[in-house]
Design goal:
This protein has a domain at 513-620. Helix content is 44%, strand content 11%. It has helices at residues 8-18, 20-25, 32-46, 62-77, 81-94, 102-121, 125-138, 144-158, 182-186, 275-284, 287-290, 294-299, 303-316, 343-347, 360-379, 390-407, 483-494, 501-504, 549-571, 575-592, 598-619, and strands spanning 206-211, 217-222, 231-235, 239-242, 262-263, 271-272, 409-416, 422-432, 440-441, 447-452, 455-460, 471-472, 537-539, 546-548. The relative contact order is 0.10.
Length: 620
């Protein structure tokens, strides 16, 4: 391979594929640090004359930006508004000197004004207003002709009563099939999040405990009863990165949807929702370093999140990475008691064991990409070989890479069908959330996620009793996949055998449970381990108490009515009342039946659909 400026992912790929000494000197029998030192030796032996890696990104081009703007105007005149917005967005991202030249600010503000016009024509008032605000935020000195157009659109929107869809439910003339009982009507939907002292991102109703089953690892459990719909965790990530196919549609910093895009100051590959996000990404998250090598970073796979985490650690704790006994990070028994969304919490988070849990070819890739990223930080002036311990930095990179294998969270967005229930989930980012990582796996968890950009909101999806463990799901739900498939997936990816109730009792998939009742005993409040056998009396499989079957079935009939009402109220758009009905239905269902009863399973997606949309509208 030729010497000189080469893209860093090409270097790594060449070393892994074509250099014999990699396989000769780096072997599974060596300790990790020995292999890492050998990787450094090989890297510097094969490429000893590098001064810098080759840049690989598309820069600004004002002539191209002008052409894209013209193409957008043409599409607008033809009423092809989606095409117009796509051209306008590209024009903004390509425009030259966006934050330094007043002429560029004027140009981009004009394009944003044109984008607002496309939404206006479609009567999408919310997004039209967002573009108008973005236009004014980007350029404080708008041309009078542009300001006049923006003001005209605002005036016409404000003068049209039917333009607004955020009216209060229950307003005069607003007929909706609520069917609320007095109990449901009185239910307060309170989302004032109160955390505890040791877990600032977790509700005061939860705590960390040791998991005796798995060698004393940590788990999260309830200290008080938690009701369905309650917030359990509200957490910003230590670090996050967008999935590459989402670059055109979401802010590169906060991951919120892009309506009025603001460009990166240097590359044309990413965009932001505000100038503040652009500055934060550039100065605090490392985009000033990664920008010139962005295409290479995409080729590194999961290493992008690892790099961002490492960069935050270097910025927040610089002494830790220096030579001559760099200052240790504060710790208590290797893990902090107070767990927050900071680098220290992530540094001591769980990681997979590279000797037993990670394929060795992946380990080798992490080592060489880690060295490349360290050299990139040297090239960018963040690390100084005379001052910083580069080998130690690469060790920490590997640590975060193995954490990525174990604890990275996939951020997803729900899309809804015509009934406003969840149709599918679309991944848009990955991130590290130290508090979320405390939740163990269940094949049918008692929580779910709602994301506001990169901010995670974890809600209870069922009643969680004091002392009960709070679960997340790492892979497949038992409702869709059988035990064998789930077990193989968990062993391959996370290297443990699941012992949740779904696996312990080998519950059938949801389609095979329809019509089968799993009654809950009113004496011991445990659920029968088998389906209903008799129609009048049933003995509890735990305490032998005689369960009144007819009473349970009558109560369940009321639950089914509430489920139907909640679904109809959701379809009508009355989120507040739908959420109250849904919470009431879930609570009442758990009085009479327990998992894996079909009525509980069948309502989960509707409950999540209601909860997500309510939180997105009223909490965010």
């Amino acid at each position: 391979m030729k010497q000189g400026k080469v893209k860093f992912h090409e270097i790594v790929n060449h070393l892994l594929a074509n250099v014999a000494s990699v396989n000769e000197k780096i072997t599974p029998n060596n300790p990790l640090d020995v292999n890492l030192q050998e990787a450094w030796n090989i890297f510097e032996e094969k490429f000893p004359y590098y001064e810098e890696f080759a840049h690989w990104f598309n820069g600004k081009d004002q002539k191209l930006s002008d052409k894209l703007k013209d193409a957008g105007n043409k599409a607008y005149k033809e009423k092809k508004f989606d095409d117009a917005r796509r051209m306008y967005r590209l024009s903004i991202q390509v425009a030259g000197a966006p934050y330094t030249a007043n002429a560029s600010r004027q140009f981009i503000s004009t394009v944003l004004s044109n984008m607002s016009a496309t939404y206006y024509e479609e009567e999408d008032w919310d997004n039209c207003v967002k573009c108008i605000r973005g236009c004014r935020d980007f350029c404080k000195d708008l041309k009078p002709s542009i300001e006049k157009k923006l003001q005209g659109r605002e005036n016409r929107i404000n003068s049209t009563d039917t333009n607004f869809d955020d009216f209060e439910e229950g307003a005069p003339g607003d007929f909706r099939p609520t069917g609320l009982s007095k109990e449901e009507a009185d239910l307060e939907l309170n989302f004032d999040f109160v955390s505890n002292d040791d877990l600032p991102n977790v509700t005061y109703k939860a705590e960390i405990a040791k998991d005796a089953k798995y060698g004393g690892g940590r788990l999260m459990r309830a200290t008080e009863d938690i009701e369905p719909g309650e917030l359990i965790i509200v957490e910003q990530p230590v670090a996050s990165c967008l999935v590459p196919n989402q670059y055109p549609f979401r802010c590169y910093h906060c991951a919120k949807k892009l309506i009025a895009p603001f460009p990166c100051r240097q590359c044309r590959g990413v965009a932001y929702c505000s100038e503040k996000c652009e500055k934060t990404s550039w100065y605090d998250e490392g985009h000033s370093i990664e920008c010139a090598h962005h295409a290479s970073i995409i080729q590194s796979g999961g290493c992008h999140l690892v790099f961002r985490t490492l960069y935050r650690g270097i910025k927040k704790n610089p002494e830790f990475f220096k030579k001559n006994g760099g200052k240790d990070l504060p710790k208590v028994n290797k893990r902090p008691d107070v767990l927050a969304s900071d680098y220290i919490s992530q540094h001591y988070s769980h990681a997979q064991n590279p000797d037993t849990d990670v394929d060795f070819e992946i380990v080798k890739g992490y080592m060489f990409f880690g060295i490349a990223f360290v050299k990139m930080l040297v090239q960018g002036g963040i690390l100084d070989p005379e001052e910083h311990d580069l080998f130690k930095v690469s060790q920490v990179f590997l640590k975060h890479a193995f954490q990525n294998q174990a604890n990275a969270v996939c951020l997803q967005e729900s899309t809804y069908n015509n009934n406003r229930t969840i149709q599918e989930y679309t991944p848009f980012a990955t991130g590290f959330f130290p508090s979320v990582a405390l939740m163990n796996h269940s094949c049918y968890p008692n929580t779910s996620f709602v994301f506001n950009g990169t901010k995670a909101h974890v809600i209870a999806t069922s009643h969680i009793s004091a002392g009960e463990q709070i679960f997340n799901n790492y892979g497949m739900l038992f409702t869709m996949s059988d035990k064998r498939e789930r077990s193989e997936d968990l062993l391959e990816r996370y290297h443990f055998v699941c012992e949740c109730d779904c696996c312990k009792y080998d519950w059938p998939i949801m389609s095979k449970l329809k019509g089968t009742r799993y009654l809950k005993c009113p004496a011991c409040f445990k659920t029968s381990t088998h389906g209903l056998l008799k129609s009048v009396k049933e003995s509890c499989t735990h305490c032998k108490h005689q369960i009144d079957v007819q009473n349970c079935l009558q109560g369940l009939g009321q639950v089914m009515l509430k489920k139907g009402l909640a679904a109809e109220t959701l379809k009508a758009g009355d989120l507040k009342n739908a959420f109250k009905q849904a919470i009431s239905a879930v609570k009442q269902a758990h009085i009479y039946v327990g998992l894996p009863d079909y009525e509980i399973l069948d309502f989960r997606e509707i409950f999540l659909s209601i909860a997500e949309q309510y939180i997105q509208k009223y909490v965010f």
